[in-house]
Amino acid sequence: xxxxxxxxxxxxxxxARPAGQGPQAGAAYRRSGQTAGPxxxxxxxxxxxxxxxxxxxxxxxxxxxxxxxALEQRGARRVVVPPGLALRLPEWAEVSTxxxxxxxxxxxxxxxxxxxxxxxxxxxxxxGTIILDGSPGQGRRAISLVPDYHLCIVxxxxxxxxxxxxxxxxxxxxxxxxxxxxxxSATSDIELERVEGVHGxxxxxxxxxxxxxxxxx
Length: 217
Hints:
alpha/beta, Rossmann fold, 6-stranded parallel sheet, 23% strand, globular
């Protein structure tokens, strides 16, 4: 029996088992985490920084100012945004909205922008992963992959501890293409020389937006 035949035979055997009788039935892995609140955001920030992303903190009241500061520090003036970003941007920024009135920006046009700003669908603290699901606040995959600098806004209520929690939240988005981002785009060659910006943004900056704790807490 060839290796191919053996693999196919095992698949056929597994498919023939009654439900719940497979070798992985009842696998005991964690489906929900215990970390919450500020500790959860701190864990996400730690993982993001470990991936060489930059992290900023904001509240809903200071979010616009943090976005402006991030763009100014980067020197990013030409900015592309998705149609549902719903955020006040600085007056000096030259902002273009992708898919505005049905106009889709080409890859060549997207490559001319200094930055892209999006929101997120979910963020996983344990793995430092941000997930985009193509919602209006995130837009097409292309706008978050072509520009060299991605500024992503993550709300505190979008952060979960573990991967299964994120997958459960994304159940309604299964029909849309998902983009899972763990740090800036990077790869390593056979000598482990790290190269960034190969198949996505060279720089990822994340703004964690949380409401301040009530007075006395």
